[in-house]
Design brief:
The chain is α+β, with helices and mostly antiparallel strands. Helices cover 40% and strands 18% of the residues. It folds into two domains: 60 residues, Winged helix-like DNA-binding domain superfamily/Winged helix DNA-binding domain (Arc Repressor Mutant, subunit A); 180 residues, GAF domain (Beta-Lactamase), CATH 3.30.450.40. The protein contains nine helices and eight strands. Helix 5 packs antiparallel against helix 9. It is globular. It starts with 26 loop residues before the first helix and ends in a 6-residue tail after the last helix. The N terminus is likely disordered. Keywords: DNA-binding, Transcription, Transcription regulation.
């Protein structure tokens, strides 16, 4: 008889049912990426022991990898809570993916349709560290000129789009982005200057369901924005509309936000994100 063919090795599964390679060529790299992927699915920081249990990894290995990831900025350590969460570098990777066209290509026609419906300028924005970067900018005809354009960076805590995304972050990630007063820049003295002021502002965003900015970037120009979430519920982007304060009364801003919400929902679906 011929020898029976050897059965292929079945990869093991971690606690979330995700199969791991049977024979990874670089075990440390594989484990580090599994840790980052696991943290990305959580709504807040967790203890190293919980990570080790969830991924079936030795605690010593998890602690060693977390130390390296924290040194590189991909993980933030909260010593008082003895927990770990995603760091700023992890968000920069996410933004880097967005800047490499997929998000802008999927979002551009939706933003253009929004401009056609509203008759106001609109844009698609991603978070990059403490700033926002404009990926898509669609200008409505005969509307005021704007400081924003594709590739422009602005402080996230001063823009409606940035506030929409910051409001969707867990408190620990927000603290990592804005650890002290030095992290807050202002334009003409406007905008939040402390972590407490920012928290109160973002509480208002969550209560309303949309973010707004009124003359804090350009006098006489206002914006409203809503967040676009990814598959884990994290802020992948924000969609905003910008207009002259004299042309759109504040009482109409919630209606604008409702239009934005429909567009954000469609973009979330297109990127296989989580729809609110």
């Amino acid at each position: 008889m011929e020898a029976s063919a050897a059965r292929p090795t079945v990869p093991a599964s971690d606690a979330r049912g995700i199969r791991s390679p049977a024979h990874p060529k670089v075990p440390a790299a594989d484990s580090a990426l599994r840790i980052l992927s696991h943290l990305a699915t959580l709504r807040g920081p967790v203890a190293a022991s919980a990570i080790a249990t969830a991924l079936n990894l030795p605690r010593s290995t998890v602690y060693q990898l977390l130390a390296v990831l924290a040194e590189r900025g991909f993980v933030v350590h909260l010593p008082e809570e003895r927990r770990y969460g995603l760091g700023v570098a992890a968000f920069e990777l996410s933004s880097g993916f967005s800047r490499q066209q997929p998000l802008s290509r999927l979002g551009r026609p939706l933003v253009a349709q929004l401009v056609d419906r509203l008759g106001e300028s609109a844009h698609l924005v991603v978070l990059h560290g403490r700033d926002v970067i404009y990926l898509v900018e669609e200008r409505a005809p005969r509307r005021p000129s704007l400081v924003s354009d594709v590739g422009v960076r602005l402080p996230s805590h001063l823009t409606a789009s940035g506030r929409a995304m910051l409001a969707a972050l867990p408190a620990a990630q927000l603290r990592a982005l804005f650890p002290n007063a030095a992290a807050f820049s202002t334009r003409d003295g406007q905008g939040p200057r402390t972590a407490g002021e920012l928290r109160r502002l973002l509480d208002q965003v969550r209560t309303r369901g949309f973010a707004q900015e009124d003359g804090e970037i350009t006098p006489g120009i206002a914006s409203v924005a809503v967040v676009v979430r990814d598959h884990a519920g994290w802020p992948a982007a924000a969609i905003a509309v910008t207009f002259s304060r004299n042309d759109v009364a504040e009482a109409e801003w919630p209606a604008l936000a409702a239009q934005l919400a429909g567009t954000a929902t469609e973009l979330s679906r297109r990127i296989r994100g989580r729809v609110a």
